[in-house]
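Suppose you are handed only these lines of text.
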Amino acid sequence: MSDLLATLSNTGIAKQLGLPTVPTLRRHRPGDPLLAGPVLVASVGESRFAKAVTAFVEEQGVPALTAVGEDRLHGVVVDLSGARTLADLAAAQQILTPAVKRLGPSGRVLLIGAEPAEASGAEAAAVAQSLDGLVRSIGKELRFGATANLLVVAADVTPAAIDSSVRFFLSARSAYVDGQVAHVAAPVGQPREPGEVDDPRAEEQPLAGRIAVVTGAARGIGAAIADTLARDGASIVAVDIPAAGEGLARTANRTGGTALQLDITASDAADRLLSHLADRHDGVDIVVHNAGITRDKLLANMTSDRWDSVLGVNLGAQLTINEALLAKGSPLHEAGRVVCVSSQSGIAGNRGQTNYAASKAGVIGMVRALAPRFAERGATINAVAPGFIETDMTATMPVATREGGRRINSLKQGGLPVDVAEAIGWFGRAESGGLNGQVVRVCGQSMLGA
Ligand code: NAD
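From them, the structure of the protein bound to nicotinamide-adenine-dinucleotide can be written out as follows.
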């Protein structure tokens, strides 16, 4: 369902009519530069990451500035991992205030902070935690599709461990990820081919040589995930129910991957999936649990059929397959990456969706519980929680609900399936081993559940 206000904004008519305008978000296109213009890189206190971020920005062929001048900024990175005192926080404000004034459309603010739990003393912990409120407020103030996010890094994290996250948050791949906080710890698991990180093609094909299975890949967000991971170099194993066979075949053909017809709730589903991956593909690197269903009803009218089917597809099947992936002899490779699709409904709750919201909140609980167990195998598990995404599902909503869903976020629009897929690709990278047990919302900083 097209977004009329966005269309009117593009033609300038919305402004003439006095309507709010919807910014056009810059999204990644192969061949486009990762960064569109100069980036301010600054730090407060002892700087752990500014040098590496500067080197990365300059590698992209754009200037890394140390002070705000007349140039329009594409990005602002402030390394606050060494900030300990209120004076340090005030210094951050002094950097950020002129910088946000110069930030251009689809600009990026990225703060890097210390882990509050590791801080020595109340003031340092308070300052580390204050970045959370600061970044979420910046996200709400920025305009024209600009975003603000925070990376919280543990004390033993090296610059290399945040590299894939810095790339993601500064690039157009994170177009609809706003107001988010991701924690980075010392990485688990080594890439299968350590050389791949330095490969000059790495940015266009960061998933080259990786095998990715995507459930629910016949249509919607799952199809976009398959397309995006394939664009980034992964070989796709697309999974969906036999009834969705046509769409599944289309996804497999489009991505040059293979199709596996499988109901993930079948009692032998985990066995069939893992044997298929072991026998036909020499194992798997990335597992995306995307398949999901809704069977909405108010709780007062909820039947056990509706309850059981939603919990079974959205949570039960993921639990079973994850246990199989963790079992001895599983085909999950070293540096394996499991990414689960949760939902904003699982965080904020939603009227008529007790079953769905319970299942999606359950996914978050599962991810947090399994993170240490996947780490023991050198693998990670994380979740993305999409907000309002323009899909067949949201197109069938009543007009008022749909309009409301689109606008109550900082970017004033719905996200696209590719936005969810890009976040999954970030978690899927071999270099993202420092991200484990994380839940990142792809919601344009929705006000719901924030
Ligand atoms: P969709 O209904 O368009 O696609 C879901 C796919 O999963 C379908 O192809 C379906 O056949 C498949 N599937 C369902 N049951 C299955 C089973 N038992 N075994 C294998 N495959 C099965 O949904 P979508 O909008 O693309 O959503 C994808 C995921 O994103 C879901 O987990 C959904 O809950 C989540 N999500 C969507 C939105 C949104 O705005 N659309 C928001 C938040 C979260």
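What can we learn from it? Residues 215-216, 218-222, 240-241, 244, 263-265, 290-293, 313, 341, 343, 386, 388-389, 391-394 surround nicotinamide-adenine-dinucleotide (CB under 6 Å). The chain has two domains: 37-171, 194-442.
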